[in-house]
Design brief:
Blueprint (H helix, E strand, L loop, with lengths): L2 E8 L3 H13 L5 E5 L4 H7 L5 H9 L2 E6 L4 H11 L4 E7 L12 E7 L9 E3 L5 E3 L5 H16 L12 E5 L7 H15 L4 E5 H10 L6 E4 L1 H15 L6 E5 L4 E5 L16 H13 L3 H17 L12 H11 L1
Parallel strand pairs: 1-2, 1-3, 3-12, 5-10, 8-9, 8-10
Antiparallel strand pairs: 4-5, 4-11, 6-7, 11-12
The structure holds adenosine-5'-triphosphate and magnesium ion.
Family: Belongs to the isocitrate and isopropylmalate dehydrogenases family.
InterPro entries: IsoPropMal-DH-like_dom
GO molecular function: oxidoreductase activity
């Protein structure tokens, strides 16, 4: 049966980079069925709703969704969309590419971030004029689910080394948060052990120092929600260029793929946005749907174009979105 992919361009450069990503997906002979859906600021202006029920339903019932960006309505769009696909892990690769100015050119790390609980579980209270509290939620089930995903991810050779026995690093602060991060750490390490996957551990603060000093020592990194959010942004800073970073929100039988960047209002509508992050998000989508080799081919094509050009303005070039996309498709 054809895989159904919901395509939500959204606002700003989403309208430019998502079509580029679709063009790359269409370069393969796969029987994808693309279904367009609306969300974002323009949709809200037209219909009163940033995320119409039809779009939510479409994403919830599709095999995967490719999303661009939303402007002021971003939170009203992306949070429900992550719920629509019941995402439990956020996948964020940070790779430095030859030809792109990076603070740490040896960086090649993939963050697997827990996507449902921790301090982002929404349990905040104002108890008095002076006192607010936050309840941190960690369950064995969510921790194990993340770890199972990490083991499979590594076993499929999807880590930076492409090596089935590459293992992963679990980052936590279990020396202080003994109960919550203690549970997280214990469950992740126990799942790794069950799967014969090598798992190192690193305290979050030590990791935050070691990563920028020597990113080459890390590959796949497994984190609780907040740590993953902050540390993956730190890694993004090491590789340079918001236009390069893809992400995936993976659920049980559904997933949502999106570039890390936003609508880039300063360059929207000019046809000069860098399509790389969206195209690499499409590569993650291909892998998710089982087309692992095709996903790697997209990455190789992108790597070649980043190194030899053409390049968009954010990377010091003068090429348009279409020219870069055509160059990527050419290499496929
Ligand atoms: P939003 O509120 O939608 O996140 P923003 O103003 O934060 O919008 P971002 O999209 O996050 O903008 O981008 C921040 C900066 O990086 C902008 O200057 C933008 O032009 C640049 N940028 C982001 N993505 C790209 C891209 N794909 N190609 C070129 N430049 C980009
Ligand atoms: Mg932004």
């Amino acid at each position: 049966m054809a895989a159904e992919i919901v395509v939500i361009e959204g606002d700003g450069i989403g309208k430019e980079v998502v079509p580029a990503a679709v063009e790359v997906l269409e370069a393969f002979d796969s029987d994808f069925e693309f279904v367009e859906a609306d969300a974002g600021d323009a949709t809200k202006a037209a219909t009163g709703e940033a995320l119409p029920a039809e779009t939510f339903e479409a994403a919830a019932s599709a095999d995967a969704t490719l999303f661009g960006a939303a402007g002021e309505t971003a939170a009203d769009v992306i949070l429900p969309l992550r719920e629509a696909v019941e995402s439990f892990v956020n996948v964020r690769p940070a790779t430095a590419y030859p030809g792109v100015d990076a603070l740490r050119p040896e960086t090649d790390v993939v963050f697997l971030r827990e996507n449902t609980e921790g301090v982002y579980s929404g349990h905040e209270d104002r108890l008095s004029d002076d006192l607010s509290t936050l309840t941190r939620v960690v369950t064995s089930s969510a921790s194990r689910e993340l770890a199972e995903f990490a083991c499979e991810f590594v076993a499929d050779g999807r880590g930076p080394n492409g090596d089935a026995d590459e293992g992963f690093t679990v980052v936590h602060k279990a020396n202080v948060m003994r109960e919550t991060d203690g549970r997280f750490r214990e469950e992740v390490l126990s799942v790794a052990d069950e799967h014969d996957v090598d798992a190192d551990e690193e305290l979050m603060d030590a990791f935050a120092t070691k990563l920028p000093l020597d990113p080459g020592q890390y590959g796949v990194v497994v984190c609780p929600n907040l740590a993953g959010d902050v540390l993956s942004d730190l890694a993004a800073g090491l590789v340079g260029g918001l236009g390069l970073l893809p992400s995936a929100n993976i659920g049980h039988d559904n997933a949502l793929f999106e570039p890390v960047h936003g609508t880039a209002p300063d360059i929207a509508g000019e046809g000069i946005a860098n399509p790389t992050a969206a195209v690499l998000s499409a590569a993650l989508l291909l892998e998710y749907l089982g087309h692992v080799e095709e996903g790697q081919r997209v990455r190789d094509a992108v790597t070649g174009v980043l190194s030899d050009g053409p390049r968009t303005g954010d990377l010091g070039g003068e090429a348009t979105t279409d020219e870069v996309t055509a160059a990527i498709v050419d290499r496929l």
